[in-house]
Amino acid sequence: MNLGAIASYTTVGLTLMLSQTRIFYAMANDGLLPSFFAKIHKTTITPWISIIISGIFCAVFSGICPVDIFGETTSISALITYIFVHITVIVMRYTHGDIARPFEVPFGSWLIPSVGSLLCILLMKGITKATGFRFLVWTALGQIIYFSYGFWHSKQRKLGKNKSLTGCVALLQQVESPIE
Protein backbone atom coordinates (compact mmCIF):
# COMPACT_ATOMS: atom_id res chain seq x y z
CA MET A 1 0.00 0.00 0.00
CA ASN A 2 1.43 3.39 -0.85
CA LEU A 3 1.94 6.35 1.45
CA GLY A 4 -0.88 8.39 -0.15
CA ALA A 5 -3.48 5.72 0.60
CA ILE A 6 -2.32 5.42 4.21
CA ALA A 7 -2.47 9.21 4.66
CA SER A 8 -5.89 9.32 3.02
CA TYR A 9 -7.37 6.55 5.16
CA THR A 10 -5.90 8.09 8.30
CA THR A 11 -7.38 11.50 7.50
CA VAL A 12 -10.80 10.09 6.64
CA GLY A 13 -10.81 7.84 9.70
CA LEU A 14 -9.92 10.65 12.08
CA THR A 15 -12.47 12.97 10.51
CA LEU A 16 -15.20 10.35 10.81
CA MET A 17 -14.32 9.54 14.42
CA LEU A 18 -14.20 13.20 15.45
CA SER A 19 -17.41 14.17 13.69
CA GLN A 20 -19.40 11.06 14.62
CA THR A 21 -19.47 11.95 18.31
CA ARG A 22 -21.01 15.34 17.51
CA ILE A 23 -23.48 13.75 15.11
CA PHE A 24 -24.58 11.34 17.86
CA TYR A 25 -24.88 14.33 20.21
CA ALA A 26 -27.08 16.26 17.75
CA MET A 27 -29.21 13.20 17.00
CA ALA A 28 -29.70 12.55 20.72
CA ASN A 29 -30.71 16.19 21.25
CA ASP A 30 -33.38 15.73 18.59
CA GLY A 31 -34.52 12.44 20.11
CA LEU A 32 -33.31 10.23 17.26
CA LEU A 33 -30.94 8.43 19.66
CA PRO A 34 -31.24 7.81 23.40
CA SER A 35 -30.52 10.89 25.52
CA PHE A 36 -27.37 9.45 27.12
CA PHE A 37 -25.55 10.16 23.81
CA ALA A 38 -26.09 13.88 24.53
CA LYS A 39 -24.59 13.89 28.03
CA ILE A 40 -21.90 16.57 28.32
CA HIS A 41 -18.88 16.15 30.58
CA LYS A 42 -18.70 18.93 33.19
CA THR A 43 -15.01 19.76 32.84
CA THR A 44 -14.20 18.96 29.21
CA ILE A 45 -17.60 20.11 27.86
CA THR A 46 -17.67 17.25 25.35
CA PRO A 47 -20.23 14.50 24.65
CA TRP A 48 -18.18 11.98 26.60
CA ILE A 49 -20.47 8.96 26.33
CA SER A 50 -20.63 9.39 22.55
CA ILE A 51 -16.83 9.59 22.49
CA ILE A 52 -16.45 6.38 24.50
CA ILE A 53 -19.00 4.44 22.43
CA SER A 54 -17.53 5.69 19.13
CA GLY A 55 -14.01 4.90 20.32
CA ILE A 56 -14.91 1.35 21.32
CA PHE A 57 -16.73 0.77 18.02
CA CYS A 58 -13.82 2.17 15.98
CA ALA A 59 -11.27 0.10 17.93
CA VAL A 60 -13.22 -3.11 17.38
CA PHE A 61 -14.02 -2.27 13.74
CA SER A 62 -10.40 -1.40 12.90
CA GLY A 63 -9.21 -4.58 14.59
CA ILE A 64 -11.39 -6.93 12.56
CA CYS A 65 -11.88 -5.02 9.29
CA PRO A 66 -9.26 -4.97 6.50
CA VAL A 67 -8.19 -1.52 5.32
CA ASP A 68 -9.59 -1.97 1.81
CA ILE A 69 -13.07 -2.67 3.17
CA PHE A 70 -12.83 0.46 5.32
CA GLY A 71 -11.87 2.52 2.26
CA GLU A 72 -14.61 1.12 0.04
CA THR A 73 -17.28 1.50 2.72
CA THR A 74 -16.23 5.08 3.37
CA SER A 75 -16.24 5.83 -0.36
CA ILE A 76 -19.74 4.52 -1.05
CA SER A 77 -21.08 6.29 2.04
CA ALA A 78 -19.58 9.59 0.90
CA LEU A 79 -20.86 9.16 -2.66
CA ILE A 80 -24.41 8.41 -1.50
CA THR A 81 -24.25 11.43 0.81
CA TYR A 82 -23.08 13.67 -2.05
CA ILE A 83 -25.89 12.42 -4.28
CA PHE A 84 -28.44 13.35 -1.61
CA VAL A 85 -26.83 16.77 -1.20
CA HIS A 86 -27.00 17.39 -4.96
CA ILE A 87 -30.64 16.33 -5.12
CA THR A 88 -31.45 18.50 -2.10
CA VAL A 89 -29.88 21.54 -3.79
CA ILE A 90 -32.15 21.04 -6.80
CA VAL A 91 -35.27 20.49 -4.68
CA MET A 92 -34.56 23.45 -2.36
CA ARG A 93 -33.98 25.83 -5.29
CA TYR A 94 -37.46 25.11 -6.60
CA THR A 95 -39.43 24.55 -3.40
CA HIS A 96 -37.82 27.41 -1.45
CA GLY A 97 -36.91 29.81 -4.24
CA ASP A 98 -37.79 32.87 -2.16
CA ILE A 99 -34.99 32.34 0.39
CA ALA A 100 -32.31 35.01 0.11
CA ARG A 101 -29.01 33.58 -1.10
CA PRO A 102 -25.76 35.53 -0.83
CA PHE A 103 -24.54 34.45 -4.29
CA GLU A 104 -25.77 32.78 -7.46
CA VAL A 105 -23.99 30.45 -9.86
CA PRO A 106 -25.05 30.34 -13.52
CA PHE A 107 -27.01 27.11 -14.04
CA GLY A 108 -26.15 26.28 -10.43
CA SER A 109 -29.69 25.39 -9.51
CA TRP A 110 -29.85 22.34 -11.75
CA LEU A 111 -26.79 21.78 -13.99
CA ILE A 112 -24.03 21.53 -11.38
CA PRO A 113 -26.02 19.30 -8.99
CA SER A 114 -27.16 17.09 -11.89
CA VAL A 115 -23.61 16.65 -13.20
CA GLY A 116 -22.38 16.05 -9.64
CA SER A 117 -25.00 13.34 -9.10
CA LEU A 118 -24.13 11.65 -12.39
CA LEU A 119 -20.41 11.71 -11.55
CA CYS A 120 -21.12 10.14 -8.15
CA ILE A 121 -23.15 7.40 -9.83
CA LEU A 122 -20.31 6.86 -12.31
CA LEU A 123 -17.81 6.53 -9.45
CA MET A 124 -20.12 4.06 -7.69
CA LYS A 125 -19.87 1.74 -10.71
CA GLY A 126 -16.35 0.86 -9.48
CA ILE A 127 -17.57 -0.34 -6.08
CA THR A 128 -17.59 -4.11 -5.58
CA LYS A 129 -20.82 -6.05 -5.02
CA ALA A 130 -19.65 -6.99 -1.52
CA THR A 131 -19.26 -3.31 -0.63
CA GLY A 132 -22.70 -2.55 -2.02
CA PHE A 133 -24.13 -5.37 0.07
CA ARG A 134 -22.36 -4.10 3.22
CA PHE A 135 -23.72 -0.63 2.54
CA LEU A 136 -27.26 -1.99 2.16
CA VAL A 137 -26.92 -3.91 5.44
CA TRP A 138 -25.73 -0.76 7.27
CA THR A 139 -28.53 1.25 5.69
CA ALA A 140 -31.09 -1.37 6.74
CA LEU A 141 -29.73 -1.30 10.31
CA GLY A 142 -30.00 2.48 10.32
CA GLN A 143 -33.59 2.32 9.07
CA ILE A 144 -34.50 -0.24 11.73
CA ILE A 145 -33.06 1.99 14.46
CA TYR A 146 -34.77 5.06 13.03
CA PHE A 147 -38.23 3.55 12.63
CA SER A 148 -38.16 1.59 15.88
CA TYR A 149 -36.79 4.39 18.08
CA GLY A 150 -35.88 7.67 16.37
CA PHE A 151 -39.12 8.35 14.53
CA TRP A 152 -41.19 8.08 17.70
CA HIS A 153 -38.88 10.24 19.82
CA SER A 154 -37.95 12.93 17.27
CA LYS A 155 -38.52 16.48 18.51
CA GLN A 156 -38.59 17.74 14.91
CA ARG A 157 -41.40 15.31 14.04
CA LYS A 158 -43.37 16.48 17.07
CA LEU A 159 -42.76 20.09 16.04
CA GLY A 160 -43.98 19.21 12.54
CA LYS A 161 -47.31 18.05 13.99
CA ASN A 162 -47.91 21.49 15.46
CA LYS A 163 -46.46 23.74 12.78
CA SER A 164 -46.45 23.89 9.04
CA LEU A 165 -43.41 22.96 6.96
CA THR A 166 -42.63 26.63 6.41
CA GLY A 167 -42.49 27.10 10.18
CA CYS A 168 -39.93 24.29 10.38
CA VAL A 169 -37.89 25.84 7.56
CA ALA A 170 -37.96 29.21 9.36
CA LEU A 171 -36.81 27.53 12.56
CA LEU A 172 -34.03 25.74 10.67
CA GLN A 173 -32.86 29.04 9.17
CA GLN A 174 -32.63 30.56 12.65
CA VAL A 175 -30.65 27.60 13.96
CA GLU A 176 -28.24 27.55 11.01
CA SER A 177 -27.66 31.31 10.79
CA PRO A 178 -24.16 32.34 11.86
CA ILE A 179 -23.78 34.06 15.20
CA GLU A 180 -22.89 37.71 14.75
Automatic annotation (TrEMBL):
InterPro entries named in the record: AA/rel_permease1
Signal peptide limits: none
UniProt keyword list: Membrane, Transmembrane, Transmembrane helix, Transport
Membrane recorded as keyword: yes
Transmembrane regions listed in the UniProt entry: 6-25, 45-64, 76-95, 107-127, 133-152
GO molecular function annotation: amino acid transmembrane transporter activity
Record membrane topology: Multi-pass membrane protein
A Pfam family hit: AA_permease_2
Domain of life per record: Eukaryota
Location of this chain's protein in the cell: Membrane
GO CC terms, sorted: plasma membrane
Chief location: membrane
Protein's name in the database: Uncharacterized protein
Source species: Rotaria sordida
